[in-house]
Amino acid sequence: MRIHKLASIMLARHGITDFFWSSIYPGGGGQPDGEVLELIERDFGSFEEFTKEFKAAGVSQFGSGWVWLILKDAKLSILKTSNALNPLIWGYIPLTVVDVCEHAYYLDFQNRRPDYLNAFLDKLISWEAVAGPLAQAKAFVTLGEPTIPEK
Amino acid sequence: MAALLTKMGSSGQARMLSHLWKRGVTTAVQQEVLPELPYDYNALEPVISAEIMLLHHQKHHQAYVTGFNKALEQLTTASDPRAIVALQSAINFNGGGHINHSIFWNNLAPPKEGGGEPPEGNLASAIESQFGSLDNLIAKLSASGAGVQGSGWVWLGLIKDSKLLKVETTANQDPLAAKGLVPLLGIDVWEHAYYLQYKNVRPDYLKNIWKVVNWSDVAKRYDSA
């Protein structure tokens, strides 16, 4: 039973870490545009508010874990999880994630997790990668007012 | 006045505030202070590097002290149950971090001050009778420590009533007291405790740390529990 538990934790961590790799790229960072930016402004008020909330979640995730941008009830939201937990457990849709386990940043930033989070948002995050899951989600989630296609 | 306060340093100021508070001069909340390390930052080399000790003590432990004091301050001004309950996790995390690290620094010692020397007296007998040998206990502690998922601690704890020793782990900065045990020896297995030196190879850190474990401190805690 213990081996099954360990295996499922490892599998979960593997899946989340894979998602993390596809959430970043060298030369990333900055602001999104188009629909992603519209949704961020709709659900957080502004891009600045989003970054503030994202960083606050990052520094307040005690211990090892992750900070996610998710789609929850057709709205963008920020979620923090510990260790091997991920938003799919609660039926939320993950759009991007940052690893806040110490091994993710310690060699470059030591204890300075806030600096690491700044670097993630300024230089690493792939907003293009957010568009993918968002587009897929629209197949079964209505994000805005439903539109009737023109004839 | 400012110059005097600066010269006193933060621990001096905290002691002054505490003294004034006891005399009823001020209603300032009693502040915790970062305890001094019982040895130099490089004293545990090559087992634990000076760089790690400096960051661990001056940055990580200090952050727990600062966070705990801030949460306590907020607690004194919190006016409704929701606000008070919301502070619980910050108090547990930062307070636990302060408690755990205060024990940890004393659980370690440089070899020239007894680090690595096997325990004697009552603790030694208890280890022998309950685990067979010190090597068996060390193997168990190392295995448990390596198995901690994410951040946490591995402990040698004591069940006070029966004087039985127990190997236990805790997550994040949860104090061992929350599991009903008296902490005797704690090994920090958060990555900040070893990553700069050992990278992801936590088992190597756990293999080496026994060279600087201060068993006489552990024995004192056992005897006075």
From TrEMBL, chain A:
Q: Which family does it belong to?
A: Belongs to the iron/manganese superoxide dismutase family.
Q: What is the name attached to this protein's record?
A: superoxide dismutase
> Record's superkingdom?
Eukaryota
Q: What is its EC number?
A: 1.15.1.1
> Into which EC class is this enzyme placed?
oxidoreductase
Q: Where is the Manganese/iron superoxide dismutase C-terminal domain?
A: 32-131
Q: Which UniProt keywords apply?
A: Metal-binding, Oxidoreductase
TrEMBL record, chain B:
Q: What is this enzyme's EC?
A: 1.15.1.1
Record's subcellular location: Mitochondrion
The reaction(s) annotated as catalysed by this protein in its Swiss-Prot or TrEMBL entry are: 2 superoxide + 2 H(+) = H2O2 + O2
Q: Does the keyword Ligase apply?
A: no
Location of the Manganese/iron superoxide dismutase C-terminal domain: 119-221
Task: Read off the Pfam families from this record.
Answer: Sod_Fe_C (PF02777), Sod_Fe_N (PF00081)
Q: According to its UniProt record, where is this protein mainly located?
A: mitochondrion
Keywords from UniProt, A to Z, are: Metal-binding, Mitochondrion, Oxidoreductase
Start and end of every Manganese/iron superoxide dismutase N-terminal domain?
Answer: 34-109
Query: Its biological function?
Result: Destroys radicals which are normally produced within the cells and which are toxic to biological systems.
Provide the family line.
Answer: Belongs to the iron/manganese superoxide dismutase family.
- The protein depicted here goes by the name Superoxide dismutase
